[in-house]
Design goal:
Low-confidence stretches: none
Number of strands: 0
Number of helices: 8
Oligomer: single chain
Shape: globular
Length: 220
């Protein structure tokens, strides 16, 4: 990557990073609490037994074991189809790193969960949402890795649509079930976006360096 492209990519990563810092400040100083509660009340108007069952099922998909199972299946598929160990390693780093960052931030900020009559019971701290971070990181890295190998523009679009739907609906389910504030989900998306961006950027930078060295060897 040339220096201009690197600069542009860094700017793309810096913007969500600044957004994370601003949002985290607002959350930790309780400046978003009124807005959070108003949004939860609006979402509450959509409450229906059938929708609740769907949201519980969707939220379950974002639990630890379903995420692990999906991750293992994706790792197997990526390796079997493309034989790319470096892509498997990237997938593992993104997934495990996202979980680690989430747990660290939860214990740093220690935000209590909403007390507005939650539909399901959850323990632990609220900010940022673990389900939302896991969804963004998982489906984000799946999109990146498969995009590189899919040539059909239609299939690429379908991949993006599927990933966006999964990321959004898992985050929405956490607000619907009233186990997270909307800003917990928004913060999770931004943090995972920053994490995903920089891990992919570093990966691509290393790959480009390796490609340049290989070219020098082949064409001295």
């Amino acid at each position: 990557m040339n220096s201009k492209l690197i600069s542009k990519l860094l700017l793309l990563g810096v913007f969500p990073l600044i957004s994370v810092i601003i949002l985290t400040y607002l959350v930790t100083t309780n400046k978003t609490l009124d807005l959070d509660e108003k949004i939860i009340e609006v979402v509450r108007t959509f409450e229906h037994p059938f929708i609740t069952k769907i949201m519980i099922a969707v939220s379950f998909i974002g639990n630890t074991w379903p995420v692990i199972i999906v991750s293992l299946v994706m790792l197997f598929v990526i390796y079997k189809l493309y034989q790319k160990r470096d892509e498997v390693l990237l997938f593992i780093i993104v997934s495990l790193g996202s979980t680690g960052v989430n747990q660290l931030l939860k214990h740093v900020f220690k935000r209590e969960r909403p007390i507005l009559d939650p539909i399901v019971v959850e323990t632990g701290f609220s900010y940022p949402s673990g389900h939302s971070m896991a969804a963004f990181s998982l489906y984000g890295i799946i999109t990146f890795l498969f995009w590189r190998h899919i040539k059909s523009s239609f299939k690429r679009k379908m991949l993006i649509v599927f990933s966006v739907i999964m990321i959004f609906i898992i985050g929405f389910s956490r607000v619907y079930l009233r186990v997270h504030f909307p800003t917990d989900v928004l913060g999770a998306y931004l943090i995972s976006g920053v994490w995903l961006f920089f891990t992919i950027w570093i990966y691509q930078y290393i790959k480009d360096k390796q490609f340049s060295r290989q070219n020098k060897k082949n064409f001295p």
